[in-house]
Amino acid sequence: MARDRVLLTGLSGFIAGHVALRLLQAGYDVRGTVRGLDKADAVRGLLAAAGANIDRLSLFAADLTGDAGWTEAAAGCRYVLHTASPFPASPPRDRHALVPAAVDGTLRVIAAAKRAGVERIVLTSSAAAIYSAHPPRAGERYGETDWSDTKSPEISGYALSKSLAERAAWDAARHTGLELVAINPALVLGPLLGVGAAGGEGASAALVRAVMEGRMPVVPDLAFALADVRDVADAHLAAMTTPSASGRRIALSSGTLSLIEIGRVVGEACPGEARRLPRWTLPDRVVRLAAILSPQARAAVPELGRRKSLDTTPARDILGLSARSPENAVAAMAQSIAQRVRTA
Questions:
Q1: What Gene3D superfamilies does the annotation carry (predicted)?
Q2: What's the number of domains the chain is made of?
């Protein structure tokens, strides 16, 4: 393939690691950005252990909060896959705290892509930019024409940052004339790359780990739309080269599971290795009382009793994806976590 160099931002992240593996397996030259090159050897080691040819991988230091490194990283690239985004382990006190890095970083990447003459950008957005802070509605089904309500006091800091970053990307794409595709996955689970400490789990894995470690014997009445990281990686590659994907927001999810259902899958996937699995659902009134003091409970309140789903027709019809089941994603992540515990 001519000019087969791809810039992949945020290479040390959970999603980006799987995207890098698929790119390298497909024969692309990959330029990955990390905040500091101290992570370079660990990233290379993980990808090599997963079977990638890391001779086609080069790493650049570039941070979303600064201009340094982006022009050099994008030079000579045909495509840009922008996965880097702040994702905190717990909700920030100030819900606008993540916005500057998310928005300004996205604009830095798009500006560098424009200078480099990039053909297309694939933005890793989120379902959080589609279905957050909407009042309940019949069916609770959402798609690419839906946008989260950024004015709502109920929107989380993460959903706010992803929504504003994606809107900024579409505005910049229109201004620069660059082709843009947004990938909007639900909560991303699935197998972890590697079993060593170098393989960062990412914030999404914290949910499954908490379930396995017995920290959630009782749970709120919450359900999550889920996407398998392997499907998310496949979607990025397909969106990069499929002509009809340009200008689309493509939601990814294979189904929705409650916390009780997630616990059941974990127990079946890791019999004997998971501790007290969730078996009881907390009354909503208890969660609302806890929300007075707990930011995590406060964030859960608007989602109590809701079971949102995503219209993934574009993923199937445009990208040709056939998604793995949500149970498969949960089981694969639980088994990866269990393997890490055994080898620690």
A1: NAD(P)-binding Rossmann-like Domain
A2: 1
Flag whether 263 is in a domain. Answer: no
Q: pLDDT digits over 295-339, tens only?
A: 888 889 999 999 999 999 999 999 999 999 999 999 999 999 998
CA dihedral 196, 202, 206, 207 (to 10 degrees): -130
Q: The CATH number of the domain where 63 resides is what?
A: 3.40.50.720
Annotated catalytic residue: which of 114, 151, 162, 308? 162
Of the candidates 108, 143, 119, 115, the one whose C-alpha atom is nearest the C-alpha of residue 33 is: 108
Dist CA 150 CA 245 (whole Å): 26
CA-CA distance, 342 to 234, in Å (whole number)?
Answer: 30
pLDDT in tens, 239-270: 999 999 999 999 999 999 999 999 999 999 99
Collapsed DSSP state (helix, strand, coil) of residue 264: helix
Residue 82 pairs with which residues in a beta bridge? Answer: 9, 123
Could you tell me if residue 91 is inside a domain? yes
Closest CA to 142 of 157, 161, 127, 124: 127
- Specify whether the CB–CB gap between 193 and 334 falls below 8 A: no
d(CA 19, CA 26) in angstroms, rounded, equals 11
Domain with 56 in it: 5-195+225-254+308-324
- Which residue is associated with the tokens 């789990």? 201
Output the CA–CA distances (angstroms, integers) from residue 299 to 102, 154, 305, in the order listed.
20, 8, 13
Q: Are 99 and 156 in contact (CB under 8 A)?
A: no
Question: Per the domain annotation, does 261 fall within a domain?
Answer: no
Q: Is-above-0.90 flag for pTM?
A: yes
The rounded mean pLDDT for the chain is: 93
Model pLDDT, residue 201: 67
